[in-house]
Amino acid sequence: MSEADRRRPEHSIAIAGGGIIGMSIAWRLARGGWAVTVYERAALGHEASWAGAGMLSPGGEIDTASPLAPLAIESRRLYPAFVRELEETLGSPIDYQECGGLDLAYSPAELDALKDRAKRQSDLGIASKPVAAGQVSTFWPRVRTDKLAGARFYPGDAIVNPRDVMSALAAACRARAVSVVESCSVCRARISPNEVAVETAHGAQNHSALVIAAGAWSNSISVSGTDPLPPVEPAKGHLIGYQQPQQTCNTIVRHGHIYILQRANGLMIAGSSVERVGFDRDIQPEIIHSLAERAGFLFPHLRDTTPSEGWIGFRPASETLHMGMWGSPRLYLAYGHYRNGILLAPVTAERVSAAINANLGMR
Ligand SMILES: Cc1cc2nc3c(=O)[nH]c(=O)nc-3n(C[C@H](O)[C@H](O)[C@H](O)COP(=O)(O)OP(=O)(O)OC[C@H]3O[C@@H](n4cnc5c(N)ncnc54)[C@H](O)[C@@H]3O)c2cc1C
Questions:
Q1: Structural domain for 239, as ranges
Q2: For a pocket test of ligand 1, which of 49, 173, 261 has the largest count of ligand atoms closer than 8 A to its C-beta?
Q3: What is the Å distance from ligand 1's center to 107 Cα?
Q4: Domain match, 145 and 117 both
Q5: Is residue 213 within 6 Å of ligand 1 at its C-beta?
Q6: Whose CA is closest to atom 35 on ligand 1?
Q7: pLDDT at position 259
Q8: At what angle do helices 162-175 and 341-359 cross, to 10 degrees?
Q9: In a shared domain, residues 244 and 273
């Protein structure tokens, strides 16, 4: 397809879903010269991509060889340039901190488990180093050191504020003339050899290809003319936030299933929980309470403080992470990122746009 053809609306690529995944793909495709239309059921970036804590943390998330491991490591490598380019477009900074992550062990058994894990991670290319219990109070003065057996530091872990990334992606897509249609669900798609007919709440439109990036809702789109869509379901998670002086927590701090990090604006975030309860949006006080207790264990001064915020989001959980063609060169999936969609946005955008370029004749 010629460059002029690519820019014609009837050859445009449709994207269902305006979260971090859909918008990162839209930006990448638009930079490559495609006309792109994003259909968003509600408002851009108001679901999981608003809720996410924003850890970019192969050290915290990956400890076995799996298809996810190289993707997570690759996406972490892409992040500095991803943020830099977005900042240049936006003209203002994104809260992105190459702060590292600290895993704490409060018993010899926990310390042994950290060492074993670090060995497996080192084989995958994830570096960490031991930190003696006595050093923790020097560098992390607010962290509980009572009964601390030791810790492990992951220098490659980082954090980003996903809400900053979403604002920047919206601006970057606007600058590349991406058409963003909010309050407009994609309901159905009919795949045929030369095009895809996309039916939305506001009418039908033909496109060259459709990317389904509707997070935990991706299965709600009915697709005909190719293989059925693989399942995805919501894994609800709660987070809490405390407004604290800056530098109260200058890295990610983790113990077991709890993590704490601090945004540049001072908001200290503690998470998280996992509930399989469908799309129930209620905030459960007992889960907020349990997160606050665990945060107060790691940072004892938080015991005297009530969280200033609590929120939930729906992680898109599926057996396999999908980022590529599905059954036809007219259909691409980009969902199932579960706990790591903020981290995986750059690599997903690269893979999906490369597949579209390869299949639809663009280099
Ligand atoms: C509590 C919590 C903590 C997390 N922490 C981290 C973290 O620290 N690091 C990390 O990497 N990841 C984290 N995640 C995961 C991450 O937030 C998700 O994996 C990521 O945001 C998924 O992005 P997405 O664009 O696929 O989905 P979403 O952001 O949910 O976007 C999907 C969009 O599609 C729209 N949509 C739905 N149906 C349709 C339709 N039919 N037509 C058009 N649009 C539709 C929705 O309105 C929504 O805007 C966390 C998630 C949660 C909930």
A1: 98-157+233-317
A2: 49
A3: 36
A4: yes
A5: yes
A6: 17
A7: 98
A8: 30
A9: yes
54 lines ligand 1 (CB under 6 A): yes
At 1-18, the pLDDT tens digits run: 555 555 555 579 999 999
- Whether residue 177 has its Cβ less than 6 Å from ligand 1: no
Based on the fold, state whether residues 82 and 173 are members of the same structural domain: yes
Ligand 1 pocket test: pick from 15, 20, 343 the residue with the most ligand atoms within 8 Å of its Cβ.
20
DSSP 300-330: GGGGGS--SEEEEEEEEE-SS-EEEE-SSTT
Q: Which residues are CB-neighbours of 17 under 8 A, at least 6 positions away?
A: 38, 39, 40, 41, 212, 213, 214, 215, 217, 218, 335
Ligand 1 site-directed mutation target among 159, 167, 217, most atoms within 8 Å of CB: 217
Supply 226's token pair.
């190719």
Q: What CATH number is given to the structural domain containing 240?
A: 3.30.9.10
Query: Which residues lie across from 274 on neighbouring strands?
Result: none
C-alpha of residue 18 to centroid of ligand 1, in Å:
9
Average pLDDT across the chain, whole number: 96
Q: What residue ranges in 85-202 does DSSP mark as E strands? A: 96-97, 101-105, 129-131, 150-154, 158-160, 179-181, 186-192, 195-200
The H-or-E segment that residue 332 falls in is strand 331-335
Q: Which stretches of 157-280 are assigned E, i.e. beta strand?
A: 158-160, 179-181, 186-192, 195-200, 203-207, 209-212, 222-224, 233-243, 252-255, 258-262, 267-271
Tell me the per-residue pLDDT of 330-346, one tens digit each, with 9 for 90 and over. 999 999 999 999 999 99
Check pocket membership of 198 for ligand 1, CB cut-off 6 A. Answer: no
Q: Are residues 166 and 292 in the same domain?
A: no
